[in-house]
Design brief:
The protein is 42% helix and 0% strand. It is mostly helical. The radius of gyration is 18 Å and the shape is globular.
């Protein structure tokens, strides 16, 4: 839970089964992200009604840090993040989280991955160095495409 003042409160460990989704086979046709994800998904909650309210600056900063940390630990990408409304018939988390926060995660995630790859070059063996150089080029290309897109703010 990311409180309005930015405090993070953990209810379960990341290894414990959650209780944030319930099977709802009628909701989605393709079942990609539908039903009971409690066994292999983490839930991050933000305090407030984000249909009508914006995240506080403190929530945005600490929530972003938390999500980047989770993505790094679990080898996730921003595309792996699902909204509650992606898996259940709900308006949660509200348009203000989706539109104003999650879209900003991809360039920050790519920058984090780029730094990790560049740091790995220092002590890498020759085969690993070649792989990291390709990864660095790919990450830089992806970042460049995002930064130069007309939708980038």
């Amino acid at each position: 839970m990311c409180e309005k003042n930015g405090d993070i409160k953990q209810a379960r460990t990341e290894e414990e089964r959650g209780a944030h989704t319930v099977p709802d086979p009628g909701f989605c046709e393709d079942n990609r992200a539908c039903g009971d994800l409690n066994h292999d998904a983490l839930a991050v909650c933000f305090a407030g009604d984000l249909r009508f309210q914006l995240l506080t600056d403190e929530q945005k900063a600490s929530g972003e840090s938390l999500l980047l940390s989770i993505m790094s630990r679990w080898q996730m990408t921003p595309q792996d993040i699902l909204n509650h409304s992606d898996v259940s018939d709900t308006s949660c988390p509200g348009r203000n989280l989706v539109s104003l926060f999650l879209k900003d995660m991809e360039p920050k995630f790519l920058q984090l991955e780029l730094r990790k790859a560049e740091n790995g070059l220092r002590y890498a063996s020759i085969p690993r160095r070649k792989m990291l150089e390709r990864k660095i080029k790919r990450l830089k290309d992806m970042l460049s495409a995002i930064i130069h897109s007309p939708n980038f703010i």
